[in-house]
Every structure is written in C-alpha cells, then in structure tokens.
Amino acid sequence: MPSLRCNRCLRTSSIRAHSRDSRAFTLIEVILALVVLGGALAILGEVMQLANSSAVDARAETQAQLLASSVMDEIMAGVQDDSPVTRQPLDVTDATRWLYSVETGTSDVVGVYPLVVTVEQDLEARFNPVKFRLVRWMPTVAETSESEEEAAASQQQGGGQSGGAGSAGNAGGAGGPGSTL
Known about the structure:
- The chain is of the alpha+beta class.
- The protein has one domain.
- 47% of the residues lie in helices and 17% in strands.
- The protein has 3 helices and 4 strands, in the order H-H-E-E-E-E-H.
- Strands 1-2-3-4 form a 4-stranded antiparallel β-sheet.
- The relative contact order is 0.08.
C-alpha cells in the first residue's frame, strides 16, 4: 500500500497548491475585468455627451420661447409696430445671434387676425438651429376700455348735454343717464 499513500500525498499537495492559486486573480480575469470596465466607461461617456447635447438644445429652445414672447409683448404694449419684418437681429447678450420675424395673416373669422412672431438662431443648417413660432390672435378693431365705453354710452343717451341751460327743465337738476327729459 505504499503506492496509495504516495497517491494521497500527491493529491493533498496539489490541493494545497490549487488553494494557494485560487486566492489570486489570473491574468485572464484581470484583462476581462479591465475590458468590462473600459466598455462601461465608454458607454457612460456617450450617455453624458448625449445628456449635455440635450441640455444645450433645451436651453436654446427656452431662450427662443422667451425672446418670442418678449417681442410679442413689445408689440402688444405698442413699443414696436406690428408691421411685417423678416429676419431682423435681436439685441441679446448671448454668444449666438438671434433673428426675429413678424408676420400678419388673414382669417376667415371676422374681427381677428393672426400675428406671428418667429425667433430663430442665426446658425448654419448643419448646426441644427432652434426656431420657435408664436401665434397670437389680435382684434382688427381697436379695443376700448370700459370707462371709454361708458362715456360714449352716456353721451349717446344724454345727447351730449353738460348742465347749464339744458338741465333747466329738470327740477332735480342732473340730466344724466336714467333721468327723463
């Protein structure tokens, strides 16, 4: 049985050697881990680049919306005329040059017309410039305030009289709206 004993010695010595080797990583395992890590970093880099590009686009779209709203507000306030203009530069403190256009259209609806303000970046087409279009329906007749409407109504009812000889017929005095002459 001496051969069995040697066999057993060989097995235990190989188990010891194997257990010593299993504590460390092999070169293949290290290379495989580096490949996986490199691939994950490359994918993460692409995702970050895509997120940055989307953030820049969102900022430009928001800027275009704000500028279009500002131009429309200036027109509504009477600071700027609503006559049609094409690709006029906007005075903004931005690295990108912005242009605006104003158009008036016609409508089938009586009493209103569309006023269109378009704001766009002045970039080459390959840079995918942002363009925003704002439409507001404007009345064709000038709106009057309530006090102006009331004054016009009182003048029509009272015949434009303002005291004096015209009110002599009334013992109570005022010949305003609601009194009978």
